[in-house]
Amino acid sequence: MEEQQQEHSPKDHYDLVILGASGFTGKYVVREALKFLNTPSSPLKSIALAGRNPAKLHETLKWASHPSPPPPLSIIKTDVSDPSSLKDLCTKTKLVLNCVGPFRLYGEPVVSACVEEGSDYLDICGEPEFMEKMESIYHEKAGERGSLVVSACGFDSIPAEVGLMFNSRQWVSPAVPNLVEAYLSLESEKRIVGNFGTLESAVLGLANMEKLQELRRSRPRRARPVIPGPRPPKGAMIEHQKTIGCWAVKLPSADAVVVRRTLAFLTENPHGLPGVNESDEQIQRRTNFWSTVKPAHFGVKIGSKSLLSIFRIITVGVFMGLLGRISFGRWLLLKFPSFLTLGWFRKNGPTEEEVRSASFKMWFIGHGFSDSSLVSQGNRKPDTEIITRVMGPEIGYSTTPIILLQCALILLSQRDNLPKGGVFPPGIVFGPTDLQERLQENGISFDVISRNALPG
After folding, report:
1. Which residue range forms the structural domain that includes residue 88?
2. Which pTM was predicted?
């Protein structure tokens, strides 16, 4: 394997390369990928690991393979600040899985190289500014070059996207949804510890809110879906959601932004995005799928059974909001993350035991109308509630690798059914595929909890 580390002939070609494989999340992505390498019916026959430090990549491979001996994967020294090394990387692979964040700092060179060479690109980004900027700059060229660029293929934001579609599809005509709110509950037998990279991305996002607003103002307005019924009121800051037994507060995550982008693409393309070489059967499947997805207003809240935990969340949010506005405050947040986030983020991340003990539940509470004809009868209130739920293991190091790899396997095995190229959110690309079924087979469940008539 040492010989493979430095020398690569131009004929080398990998199904996928994991970039940033030795990082906190990257090493878990490697471990997940090895489960599908050269297994029956898997399209994944060759993997390479890429990053700045070959020695760390070798250690990652040993860790991810344990207790088995490491397979003879190629190790490619790649620096995202070196365009030539990225170009070399992209000429050798069909697909890059990018785990190098914060993406605002390190993501664009990777996207640029993939687009230039016509390689496909998936990442686990949860940074709205980066995603929207990449679409603005590279969407047209990616379409021409045949490079499919899809961000947010981790916990940000596929549980929200696929979860919303799952809830939406329960509204069988003539029923229609008006509002679907997601309530995220993080659970653990130990303690919940977040990835430092996630905190870093959030801090940078706070620092660049004005740039995001400028970017949005500079672009043409996207099509907005027609949602039946009146726009729902904002509601109280703290909510007691009796239906699922939790207190909740609004969560300023990327999920709602990503969902809105998918709904905008769907409004512009009511039958979804055509595949590069679809069969007639697939065209019918895609058209049928999107005919069952009904748009709705969407928001995300974080919930807890303890009101004290909600106040703790608000306190951390205030700290981050105030400190994130000034450079010294951002330095403090990133220098002393454990203290200033009340222990939720640590530079060294969670332990293996903390990862194994953690899980999530994401409830989707949909309010709408039992019959779309009711909407025309003035400002009538919704009369129906449908509750669905998505559940899975720890979000950052278990669920995210599961999702990323299933997206990669779909891309490798069903490329003809996916768009030729462009920069898209994951929902519009993977919605009509078998992604939900694949996630269910790998420990992420989707359930219908209840259907109720609301009091008049």
Report:
1. 2-150
2. 0.93
